[in-house]
């Protein structure tokens, strides 16, 4: 999924095609849309995998990103925050084979702060998007069923439910660990996971880079173990929350597998 992060950071698509335009309109959010090719079939549903080609320009004509540098169309999950807000809105009503030109105000693109070295402050941008294909997304990731399992609360307030203790060693601070995980808000809303692409994450176990609840959970977990942790706000992202996915004072639930300790 890391290429999806690049799409959010760098943007998408090319100026005007100059042929076969049908109509133009501006949405309530301020997105300017020009239909070039209407396309056929159904519009995307949340979770679908969209295959898209795009090029992105500044309004003065300078290009800043394109899928032409890839071997084929980019693949993104629709409705999961993998696209800029204006692109998400623009492709929501597209059909397979359709092409559009989208002009995004800063609020629907890179914001008033822009992207250092890529998009200047408060910049409007223009994308040309082709929706090559729509594929059904993977089945939804749901929290593990913990019915009947014991909940253990640590001295810090972290709640732990063991699914499998594991037979390996405990990691130490400074070790690299490989984990599979899914993170949910306490209402069951998924906000992050490694399972969609079956791509476990490797990272250094450190207090500087992880929330306290994760540090505590991993330090007390054996290699090969599987556990659910319930992280209160003061062991998570606190009163500030994190980005758009995690609101302030959120209690978080993580299903974690510690696959490997890499020393």
How would you explain this protein's 3D organization?
The protein has three helices and 14 strands. The strands form two sheets. Strands 1, 2, 3, 4, 5, 6 and 7 form a seven-stranded antiparallel beta sheet that branches. Strands 8, 9, 10, 11, 12, 13 and 14 form a seven-stranded antiparallel beta sheet that branches. The protein is mainly beta and 263 residues long. It is 10% helix and 33% strand. Mean pLDDT is 89; it is low at 1-21. The chain has helices at 2-10, 85-92, 212-219, and strands at residues 23-26, 32-37, 49-58, 63-66, 74-77, 99-104, 125-135, 152-153, 159-164, 176-185, 190-193, 201-204, 226-231, 252-262. It has two domains: 2-135, Chitinase A, domain 3 (Roll); 152-262, Chitinase A, domain 3, CATH 3.10.50.
Please name the defining characteristics of this protein.
2 domains; seven-stranded antiparallel sheet; 3 helices; 10% helix; elongated; disordered N terminus
Name given to the CATH architecture of the largest domain: Roll
- Average pLDDT value? 89
End-to-end span in angstroms? 26 Å
Structural class: mainly beta
Percent of residues in beta strands?
A: 25-35%
Fold blueprint:
Layout (H helix, E strand, L loop, with lengths): L1 H9 L12 E4 L5 E6 L11 E10 L4 E4 L7 E4 L7 H8 L6 E6 L20 E11 L16 E2 L5 E6 L11 E10 L4 E4 L7 E4 L7 H8 L6 E6 L20 E11 L1
Antiparallel strand pairs: 1-2, 2-6, 3-4, 3-5, 3-7, 6-7, 8-9, 9-13, 10-11, 10-12, 10-14, 13-14
């Amino acid at each position: 999924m890391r290429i999806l992060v690049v799409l959010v950071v760098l943007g998408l698509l090319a100026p005007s095609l100059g042929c076969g335009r049908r109509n133009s309109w501006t949405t309530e959010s301020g997105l300017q849309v020009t239909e070039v090719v209407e396309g056929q079939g159904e519009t995307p549903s949340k979770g679908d995998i969209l295959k898209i080609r795009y090029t992105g320009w500044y309004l003065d004509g300078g290009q800043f990103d394109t899928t032409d540098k890839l071997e084929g169309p980019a693949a993104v999950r629709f409705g999961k925050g993998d696209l800029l807000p204006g692109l998400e809105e623009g492709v929501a009503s597209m059909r397979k084979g359709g092409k559009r030109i989208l002009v995004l105000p800063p609020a629907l693109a890179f914001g008033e702060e822009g992207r250092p070295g890529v998009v200047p402050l408060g910049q409007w941008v223009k994308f040309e998007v082709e929706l090559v294909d729509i594929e059904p997304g993977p089945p939804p990731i749901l929290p593990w069923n913990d019915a009947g399992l014991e909940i253990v609360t640590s001295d810090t307030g972290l709640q732990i439910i063991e699914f499998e203790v594991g037979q390996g060693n405990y990691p130490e601070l400074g070790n690299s660990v490989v984990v599979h995980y899914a993170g949910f808000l306490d209402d069951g809303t998924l906000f992050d996971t490694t399972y969609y692409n079956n791509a476990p994450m490797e990272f250094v176990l450190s207090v500087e880079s992880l929330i306290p609840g994760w540090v505590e959970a991993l330090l007390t977990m054996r290699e090969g173990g599987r556990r659910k942790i319930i992280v209160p706000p003061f062991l998570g992202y606190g009163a500030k929350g994190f980005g758009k996915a995690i609101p302030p004072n959120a209690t978080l639930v993580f299903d974690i597998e510690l696959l490997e300790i890499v020393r």
